[in-house]
Specification:
The complex is a heterodimer of chains A (about 325) and B (about 260).
Chain A lengths: L1 H18 L12 H33 L11 H14 L2 H4 L3 H24 L3 H23 L10 H6 L7 H19 L2 H7 L3 H6 L4 H23 L5 H13 L3 H25 L8 H23 L1
Helix pairs in contact in A: 1-2, 1-13, 2-8, 2-11, 2-12, 2-13, 3-5, 3-6, 3-11, 5-6, 5-11, 8-11, 9-13, 12-13, 12-14
Chain B lengths: L1 H15 L8 E3 L2 H10 L5 E3 L13 H4 L9 H4 L6 E4 L5 H9 L3 E4 L6 H14 L3 H16 L9 E5 L4 E3 L4 H8 L3 E2 L6 E3 L2 H6 L4 E6 L6 H4 L11 E5 H5 L5 H9 L2
Parallel strand pairs in B: 1-2, 1-3, 3-4, 5-7, 5-9, 9-10
Antiparallel strand pairs in B: 6-8
Helix pairs in contact in B: 6-7
The chains are: A mainly alpha (about 325), B alpha/beta (about 260).
């Protein structure tokens, strides 16, 4: 509870800061148009994207009882990017705007289903991570291929946006498109706390407590696909957030998966808000991609977790 | 004086007969395409660049339709047995070197930055394809077109904004076009760079000229339709008009001067 409060306060402070930083100058004493039409939607999206990725990571880690589970590493984010890329560059989203989050949702769902099917078949552990790496590699190759064949000459240069993520110059339009899916996904994922706690005791114990693995996996897959699919459809594939956040918090809340969910969502918002602030502060002609910063933060955490697991195991 | 020398030269070339005209001209570059199409007989064009007939990028797409195209790679250019190649400033360096090694004349056109460059390139291509008189006629026609453009007072600030916020500042072709139309370039730098959305909104121009290269969607071009731009007066021009300095560049001057 205290952790949730702290993470929420941090997210709020970063959101306020996010309204005050940009190419037009610092502070709130700027054109209200810039504040409300440019910075505000970007801030809202950063908070939503961070919450979606981190909560999805926390749920997947609990569900699969594997600290390396992350929507990015498991290919869910890649699948979402692929679906969004196909919907966007071939004009589907122009004719029918909801095609964009819908494409992200379908791509994420297919990737999540593939990975969870492997998990159900092969158990958790190394096989799952390998399957996830396989799905992630296929989706990133397909995103690159889809953009190489896209009819717009600028599409090729946008590969980095879809593989590394960006929130530059988004408008309220993108917020309206993404938020229904993201919010629905977040609510569904937050409701899984008790089931995850039961599963932490092992599948048989969970079954004896009335928690079946199949429906729980299906709900987690749908929740992740909604949250990550909606987020990636407007922000691309921001990596490592789902991996870093639960692992950083786990030391403070202990091993109970349900205690990790809300703090993870709020801390995820803080992380992406902070990364999105940082990309705006680096003086480049084109903004640094969000995923560059989250990977710089996330990869060391991945290494630390891997080392700790090796020592424990 | 210079142009009368040119006319005399044209006359002399005409006297020595049509034998001197290259009969298998290849254009290796989108900008060269425009000059070749305007100056050489269609029957003498062996190939244009692959972009020549693309209406989103080529200002002479209409004229290019039906003519063969070839990519600027050896495997496609050498079998055409060209006797003259018109190339851009940088592209196709290996093709150019290979053609020159075989004794084929290659004319390299620099990046046209203003009307003087356009005239010089018109004359260079006209001379190379053996159509000096046609070149002089085109130069005279362009000068006449430019002379009839009514210039404004040069206080309207105009920003030319392309995909990803790419902007042409001072000392560029687009800057010359704005000046020729009696407008002031609002870009805060010389050469090419980007103007971020926020900075554009902080100091909005009197007129925002957007150049769109494609009807197909991209994030880079979605920026041009950001809702926050709604209150700024805007004009959309085909990107093809400003992609190259050539006879078609004057269309952009005429449309902008009418604003």
């Amino acid at each position: 509870m205290i952790l949730s409060l702290a993470a929420g306060t941090l997210a709020l402070a970063l959101a306020l800061l996010s309204l005050a930083v940009g190419a037009a100058g610092f502070g709130f004493v700027i054109d209200p148009l810039i504040l409300w039409q440019v910075r505000a939607p970007r801030t809202v999206l950063a908070a939503l994207v961070g919450a979606a990725l981190a909560l999805s990571g926390a749920v997947l880690q609990g569900l699969l009882r594997n600290r390396l589970a992350d929507p990015g590493l498991l290919g869910v984010t890649g699948g979402a990017s692929l679906g969004a890329v196909l919907a966007f560059y071939w004009g589907l989203a122009t004719a029918f705007p909801l095609a964009l989050p819908f494409g992200g949702l379908v791509g994420a769902l297919v990737a999540a289903a593939a990975v969870l099917a492997v998990a159900a078949h092969a158990g958790t552990g190394a096989a799952l991570i390998l399957a996830g790496i396989g799905v992630a590699a296929i989706t990133s190759a397909l995103v690159t291929m889809a953009l190489s064949f896209a009819p717009n000459p600028f599409a090729l240069a946008e590969i980095t946006i879809w593989l590394l993520g960006s929130l530059a110059d988004r408008s309220w339009h993108e917020v309206w498109l993404a938020s229904p899916a993201v919010v629905a996904g977040l609510l569904l994922l937050l409701s899984l706390g008790e089931r995850l706690d039961a599963l932490a005791l092992g599948e048989e114990t969970a079954a004896s407590l009335g928690v079946a693995i199949g429906p729980t996996m299906a709900r987690a897959a749908l929740g992740s696909a909604l949250a990550v699919g909606g987020a990636a459809a407007v922000a691309g594939g921001v990596g490592f957030v789902g991996l870093i956040v639960p692992n950083l918090l786990r030391g403070r809340v202990g091993e109970r998966p349900s205690a990790l969910l809300l703090p993870s969502a709020l801390a995820g918002s803080s992380l992406v808000l902070a990364a999105d602030l940082a990309v705006r502060l680096v003086p480049l002609q084109q903004e640094l991609r969000l995923g560059v910063l989250t990977a710089l933060l996330g990869a060391p955490v991945l290494l630390a977790v891997a080392l700790r697991e090796a020592r424990v195991g | 004086m210079w142009s009368s020398c040119r006319l005399l030269l044209a006359f002399l070339v005409g006297m020595t007969g049509a034998e001197a005209k290259p009969s298998r001209v290849v254009s290796l570059n989108l900008c060269a395409d425009q000059f070749v199409l305007a100056l050489a007989d269609r029957a003498r064009i062996a190939a244009l660049s692959p972009l020549a007939a693309d209406p989103s990028l080529s200002a002479a797409a209409e004229a290019a339709r039906g003519l063969p195209t070839a990519r600027p790679v050896l495997e496609e250019i050498l079998p055409l047995r060209p006797d003259l190649a018109i190339a851009g400033a940088w592209g196709g360096a290996r093709v150019v070197a290979a053609l020159e090694a075989r004794g084929v004349r290659v004319v390299r056109l620099g990046l046209a930055g203003d009307f003087d460059d356009i005239i010089a390139q018109t004359r260079a291509v006209a001379e190379a394809v053996g159509e000096v008189a046609r070149g002089e006629a085109l130069v005279a026609a362009m000068e006449a077109r430019l002379a009839t453009v009514r210039r404004g007072e040069r206080h309207r600030r105009v920003l030319i904004w392309e995909a990803r916020g790419f902007t042409a500042g001072e000392a560029t072709l687009a800057d010359w076009v704005l000046r020729a139309a009696g407008l002031r370039n609002a870009a805060p730098f010389a050469g090419y760079g980007t103007v971020p959305l926020e900075r554009l909104l902080a100091v909005p121009p009197d007129l925002l000229v957007t150049l769109s290269a494609s009807a197909a969607p991209s994030l880079s071009e979605a920026l041009l339709d950001h809702p926050a731009l709604a209150r700024i007066p805007r004009l959309a021009l085909p990107a093809a008009w400003l992609a190259c300095g050539g006879p078609e560049t004057l269309r952009a001057v005429e449309v902008l001067a009418a604003q």
